[in-house]
Amino acid sequence: MSERILRKAVKSNLIVSVALVIIIISLIGYIVYRETNIPREQIFVTVTATELGTGTVTAILHTTLRETSLVTTTVPQISTYTVTYAETKKIVVQDALNRTLVFDKLPEKIVVSGKGARYLLDLLYLFKSAPERVLAFDKMFMNDPILQVLEPDLEKKAVFSGTPTVETLLSMKPDLIIMKSAFKRDGDVYESAGLRVMYVDPETPNGFFRDLINIGKIMGEGGRAEQIARFMKEILTYVGVKINATGIDKPKTLFLYYSVKGSTVSVKVPPAGYLQNILIELAGGDSVSKNTPGGQWVEVNIEQIISWNPSIIFVVTYSSSPSPSDVIDKIINDPLWKDI
Q1: I want to staple 312 with a disulfide (CB 3.0 to 4.6 A). Which of 120, 142, 233, 253 is the partner?
Q2: Can you state the angle between helices 21-33 and 222-246, rounded to 10 degrees?
Q3: What domains are defined for the chain?
């Protein structure tokens, strides 16, 4: 499929699936990087209150007929990040662990490490300098459709399997390693060997926008990061406005992470504050796990799921074995799930 056809396909999918914010977020790197204009029914949103702050946001919808209407919607708290650039060559960021990192110059060789790196790569490739600056990542991402479009020298990238050893990383001589904060134990080992690490944690809206701004700064494209953040917040506001306007009841929705490690099967849900819960709420659903306490994915049993009695279940495995389709077939044929 040619890049032009792929670009049209992405635009078409976004128009049809505007309420599915998860799809919008996953494709945003490709859309913004190629500076594609999304019609979104030719409606543009201007946020006039605190931009996606706490509580009610007032927005003006501009249509192709130049009619305007004033609408309000309640959205989750999403902080606004403003970056002020001083007259200095130093780059200063505060990472996901609230550590202040100071760079005398832009990192030229960046390695992405650890589980969940796919989303970190997608963030990096929002920026035009990524092909020249990203040095290495897990080889499992060589088939990533976004990288196949945006990385012209994909086959020339250095790759490793799983968590790279200190020796592997030292041989690459990276200027910076980017990884999720959940894997700080590995990061401590890297830093003890003199390697620089920046932690990210895009599991919440606040975390996502913080990481977006930070990565924009280390890529030397801070202005672009702010532009992308504004664009994405407009999408979030737009979807919230459209969903609230429908007046329909919110279906109970479960986001289910089905994990298999050896012979051990676990079923997990995102806890309170996680992006999956917030996106379900923004898309018009009632996320049954939105008040579940916990700092990481929370394991639940079938009794809890039955008590929630969801109408819609999203299944992810973050794996091809089993795939989400495999799990869905198993659930449908499992007598334990028959009462849901």
Answers
A1: 253
A2: 150
A3: 3-75+224-244 (no CATH), 91-221 (3.40.50.1980), 252-337 (3.40.50.1980)
275-282 helix and 205-218 helix, angle to the nearest 10 degrees: 110
> In angstroms, rounded to a whole number, what is the distance separating the alpha carbons of residues 96 and 77?
18
98: left (phi over 0), alpha (psi -120 to 50) or beta: left
Decide if pLDDT at 5 tops 60.
Answer: no
pTM exceeding the 0.90 threshold for the entire prediction:
no
Q: Rounded to whole angstroms, how far apart are CA atoms 40 and 29?
A: 17
Q: Determine the number of helices (DSSP H) and then strands (DSSP E) in the chain.
A: 12, 15
pLDDT digits (tens, 9 = 90+) for 243-269: 888 878 899 999 999 988 877 888 999
Which amino acid, one-letter code, is at 25?
Answer: I
Digit-coded pLDDT (tens) for 105-155: 999 999 999 877 888 998 999 999 999 999 999 988 888 888 889 999 998
- Beta-strand pair 68-75/55-62: antiparallel
- Residues 280, 46: Cα–Cα separation, whole Å: 23
DSSP class of residue 170 equals H
Pairing of strands 55-62, 44-47: antiparallel
Overall average pLDDT of the 8-28 stretch: 38
Contacts of residue 242, defined as CB under 8 A and 6 or more positions apart, other chains included, come to 18, 19
Within the chain, strands assigned E span 44-47, 55-62, 68-75, 91-94, 100-103, 110-112, 134-138, 158-160, 176-180, 197-200, 252-261, 264-269, 286-287, 298-299, 312-316
